[in-house]
Amino acid sequence: xxxxxxxxxNKNGDRVYLLTGQxxxxxxxxxxxxxxxxxxxxxxxxxxxxxxxxxxxxFTGAWDSSFDWRRARQESxxxxxxxxxxxxxxSMLGSGRFVYFSSQEVFSGTSxxxxxxxxxxxxxxxxxxxxxxxxxxxxxxHQRQGLDxxxxxxxxxxWVPKRGQPELDPxxxxxxxxxxxxxxxxxxxxxxxxxxxxxxxELAYKASTAPELPRTLYHISSMEEINGLQLAExxxxxxxxxxxxxxxxxxxxxxxxxxxxxxxxxLGQKILTPYQEGVEQVVQYMQRHSESFIRAxxxxxxxxxxxxxRLKVLLATLAPYIENIAAFFLFYYLNSIAVGSGFFDRxxxxxxxxxxxxxxxxxxxxxxxxLLSVAGYCVQQMPLRTGFEVLLxxxxxxxxxxLFIVGLVIGYIRDQLRTIKQENRDEIAYLENRLNDILDIxxxxxxxxxxxxxxxxxxxxxxxxIYEITSTLERQAPEEVLFTAVRILSQLMDCGGAAIYTVAxxxxxxxxxxxxxxxxxxxxxxxxxxxxxxxxxLKEHRVYINKTMEEKMPLMASAVYxxxxxxxxxxxxxxxxxxxxxxxxxxxxxxxxxxxxxxxxASQYLETLRSERFVEDSRLMEEKAFLQLSQAFFTxxxxxxxxxxxxxxxxxxxxxxRAAAALSGSTRQSDYMGAAGGGSLxxxxxxTSPDNAVFVIxxxxxxxxxxxxxxxEET
Length: 715
What we know:
By secondary structure, this protein is of the alpha/beta class. The chain folds into 4 domains: 1-154, 3-Layer(aba) Sandwich (Rossmann fold); 304-436, no CATH class; 476-608, 2-Layer Sandwich (Beta-Lactamase); 611-714, 2-Layer Sandwich (Alpha-Beta Plaits). A 6-stranded antiparallel beta sheet has the order 16-15-14-19-18-17. α1 (2-11) crosses α6 (197-209) and α3 (72-91) packs parallel to α4. The radius of gyration is 41 Å and the shape is elongated.
């Protein structure tokens, strides 16, 4: 969910900041302006909000992957604490909007009708209770703190999973069951509605960014009823033969469908992905990567791994006791040989033993070593005295008291010192983390400052760029405007290639100029109405963005109109996906408007001089005008912007007008003819290589006119 939201925001040109919710600096596929690797309950969250001052803060809540709900009880506490910390920090800014993502999990049981927002919640389980409590916390902040809050409750969202990653939605679970066992168990008593992730994100974006709304809580649901058995049969049909659907429709019914009527009323709603299409995407992907999903399901913590971990913990716990017992036998032996020794007779090895373990391990081991020492002392006294004599000897009790007093005191001091040391370490670590967090935020602010300064410089420089474009186009001869325009378009849009197509009629457009081989791949002539997605945008005077990354389509396109008639089509290739935003689309539209003005002026100028450029209202150009035009084409060809060929046609009796009329049927609208004198006529074939010019020569010969290809050096 988070990645899909980031992608949607990026496409709209919004600046996205990400609080990851974890300390690990894991790579993120989606492009974000800045990323902060802090847990949600970290004190640095407040510093982040103060630094960024976001207009909208989105807490993905029920869909946040940083929470591990396998330990539901502990995680529900962490979830609530995280939300409270984020809300408190954000509310202190005094402005902005907070969006909370909830889910249908706040409801349980069954209902014969779709559930409206006002229906009382009935969560079951720690996860659902935490999500429901999150809604109440957000609502309280709205009521008591005046915070602008939007609570979005999603209904059974499903999506194409990542390779090997388990999901919780019913579509995934059924697909996984089919892959593992070749069968799907389902019930028609389990009734719900589903919403594909792409649609859910689009609706969430609309609700999050709408300026004014009458409610704080909205249900986001397709409201298209489907039961488990129907879904299973749909999956089975897509997977093909070999997948059996088992009907286990027994017991009580379970129907949970959210009513999205309020959303439809206030914002409007359009679901673009029907069940068949969405489920098909999930099934096909999981079939292609079936091994990864099955392994991920079956390989989770093996018995040996769990045993090894528990054994390691047990050994770490028992290690001090084992050491204590082993040392006891050593000191017991030393004390035995010291008895009667003139040098070691006064040395109490049992006291040293207790003192050693009090210093090393603390009170607990001191007590154990004391008890073992008393037992060892009694055993050593048995050959010399009876047990009754040992018990009656007050020296025994003095020795025992000395033993335990020394052990407990030293052990207590050691435990206290260790506690103080650990507290100091924790405080130092905390302060170091806070310092590192502040340094990270400061570094982030510096990076953003540099980025903003660069944007400001570019913004200031944009006036100069606009002037440069306008003046460059105005300086060009009318014949060179479009060649200059495609070069400027490629430079300013910083793309891998640009192309300009001239619209010949309502069905076809012909390539006029292109800056790269990639930009020529569509061909010299295209049936642009057949490019439905692009055409639908262009005819509405909008910029086309290839959001589906269709290979045979440009990444962006814009049209230039002349009196409500499409005249030119600009196409761009080689644009990074992160730049395919509304901002870039607006820039392309502005450049198109400037080019349009230049083209219109050039067309008006040429139309004014039409009588001087053309012979007797024919397609035949005067020699001087044709020379200027052909020179512009050859210059553009040298720059790699187009291809062209020049033919010389022999004209009997110097009847150029008649020859031009006869040859018109063998040329395109984008081709040009001009009188050359000396009984010859020149034909300029736009976007035509010398090899293809041979076919035109043959057509001219069939029309009764001989012609030849003119080399560049002859012009």
